[in-house]
């Protein structure tokens, strides 16, 4: 007899992670699916599909079905998940048939969106699908004591969405979600380069620029980077040199929006929990928190300690996987 596998899925807007408590991270791939527009067949998923972005022939389109934090394209999400779960069972030898699955969902997800996610996972044959709110999963993954009456603030900066949540006693006390994260930063860089240099760069290039010379709003020694794009005047390829200072200015607006959201959430904190927040501060997670200088900048701005989660790109998936046994414990305790 096989016992069912227990797995956690972080259905992120930029990356999907699958985690099993016994084997750790089984899969970590971009949430991208490429399909043929004529046959509607899926051509590639995950890493392979992301490599195709901006490079495909006309009849193959790479899409990010979760881009804005909800399942915008239900069919594509379901197909993507199916292919990724197939990959996992092949690679890890763990049977993905009838697994018990916990999926983490953005706090702001509507019941229709929640159902869509549940159905997408069930369509692969999952036995039991439970949903967990993303900030709780992030907190569990970051080793915070979520089941105690202590307030923790989680700032999760993802690709398409970012969430700021105050949690206490295993529940969300207050939460704000914005449809902005690393993707918006990439878009701002593209806009900036187009406006200042008349050069068109692709999404992948702009993400690389952000990761290499992007900074939060702090002082730093200037860095330069050469990038290639298409000259919009003559249509020819062109190489330009960008400086970290100008990229910083391009990111200013989206960073300020994030800061505003954090401030607004903290202002909503019940007074009894304020003391905890002053002592314990804020935990940063999500890939966007890896932007250089993010931790220092936020500490300067919000006057409470700011810590990084041990593994910002993985803490939600780890917490989702671990939450299975915690849920059982909690269920037992309340019986
Ligand atoms: P999601 O949970 O929405 O899938 P992730 O937490 O996986 O998002 O974060 C993805 C985002 O993090 C992307 O926008 C990516 O460009 C950004 N990111 C990843 N690494 C870095 C880095 N070193 N510096 C800045 N941004 C980063
Ligand atoms: Mg995430």
> What's the total count of β strands?
16
Largest sheet: 5 strands, mixed
Report the portion of residues in β strands. 25-35%
The rough form would be described as flat
Which ligands accompany this protein? adenosine-5'-diphosphate, magnesium ion
Q: So what's the oligomer here?
A: single chain
Helix content range of the residues, please? 40-55%
Please, how many helices? 10
| CA distance, first residue to last residue | 29 Å
The strands making up the biggest β-sheet line up spatially as 3-2-1-7-8
Q: Which class of secondary structure composition applies to the elements?
A: alpha/beta
**Could you name the ranges where pLDDT drops below 50 across 5 or more consecutive residues?**
none
Mean pLDDT, rounded to whole units? 90
Rg (CA only):
21 Å
Give the topology string: H per helix, E per strand: EEEEEHEHEHEHEEEHEHEEHHEHEH
Describe this structure in words.
This protein is of the alpha/beta class. Helices cover 40% and strands 26% of the residues. The strands form 4 sheets. It has a 5-stranded mixed sheet with strand order 3-2-1-7-8, sandwiched between helices. The chain has a 5-stranded mixed sheet with strand order 11-10-9-15-16, with helices on both faces. Strands 5-4-6 form a 3-stranded antiparallel sheet.
